[in-house]
Write a structure and sequence with these properties.
By secondary structure, the protein is mainly alpha-helical. The protein has helices at about 10-20, 25-35, 60-70, 80-110.
Length: about 110
């Protein structure tokens, strides 16, 4: 596993330092920590981010999402595909631009009468 931003030991030290400086947070943190499943290094993890190789097809991304959902088998898991989301937004923005242009053209023409 690649710890690209900071290592798990650094992260754990950072959490312990915060809990020492703000003792009133410690109880709330430990109550919240009980709700999480058992995790490595006793550090709760909320998100799993997976970076795929550039140029991955939608079939490959869908296969990965489906396999991940089948493997974890938890209703609270949410899988978000940013590339597909951006492609959908770009297509919808194109339709919105066309609609906006059409309405503007009609209003411009009607403005002459």
């Amino acid at each position: 596993m690649s710890d690209s931003f900071l290592s798990m030991s650094q992260y754990k030290d950072m959490i312990n330092e915060v809990l020492m400086r703000y003792p009133w947070i410690k109880d709330k943190y430990h109550r919240r920590f009980i709700e999480f499943p058992r995790c490595k290094d006793n550090i709760p993890k909320v998100a799993l981010m997976i970076k795929l190789k550039p140029g991955s097809s939608i079939q490959e991304r869908s296969l990965l999402k489906n396999n991940l959902l089948n493997f974890v088998n938890d209703d609270s898991l949410t899988v978000f595909d940013a590339i597909t989301f951006m492609e959908d937004i770009e297509a919808r923005m194109g339709m919105l631009d066309f609609f906006n242009f059409s309405i503007s053209l009609v209003c411009f023409i009607l403005g002459f009468f």
